[in-house]
Amino acid sequence: MIDYTARLSLLMQDIVARVPTLSFIDTSRVLVFARAGRANAEGAYATCHCVCLPPSEPGYYFWRDRRTGQLTRRSEWFVTKSPQVRIGTRPIDYMVSFALPRFCDQMLSRSRKQVHYKGHPNWVAKLDTIVHELYHIDPAQPGIRRIERADGTYSANCHGERFFADVVAMVNQYLDTKPNPAAYDFLQYSFDELTSRFGGLAGTAFRVFPSYPQRYTEVLDPQPEAPTGAACPVKPLKLPRVTRQFTEEDLMMREFFRDGSRRLPSRNRSAAA
Ligand SMILES: [Zn+2]
Q1: Distance from the CA of 47 to the center of ligand 1, in angstroms?
Q2: pTM (2 decimals)?
Q3: Lowest mean pLDDT: which of 140-149, 229-238, 245-254?
């Protein structure tokens, strides 16, 4: 069985080693994992998740009287925090998730990217997606790269024409370095081709699949004083119980099918790696 997320991780290492703009990325702190995504359904092919953002500033929700503008109620003070992800001794700063099997079937000829890659084979669409996700990692501070507009202010959106054009340039730059085809040749196969060639397709996922580590809200204890002018009843926050720390124990291998996936017994873990 092909370990698809392991192949993607190795390819990312090769890209980072060959594309100077991405050379600041420490891939040992980037975890690749699989999410569910059907090939014929709408949705992202891949997503970059930052798990190293500092906690937010304390805040609270409030309700106002529409007529007087006075606060009538507020929530407890809370902060939002990134979950902690640590694999063995290495802390993880970013995670890149791939929707399987959707990503495997991504094709240049079916996407808007095609105008940028005239004469390139179909699988370059997948390479574009991988570089795109890596380019989201901010070189200057923990978080998702912000896109500066021509006037020096930052765009509210983390994409922009420049972003897409930069990705195309980096894809070409990578290919121009003549990488070993063994690093990327798995991208040329569709999901069906991969499963028949390798006898199955597996990837690392979180045990809480289809969930994964996400930012969570924490009530401050002790509670700071009431905000000035907010002498109103305080409503406790009802928060779902979430896992805040993840380790390699929270990872497992899943086999992906055209419509669904199954957890692989852990003894297959090393065999699939
Ligand atoms: Zn993006």
Answers
A1: 7
A2: 0.90
A3: 140-149
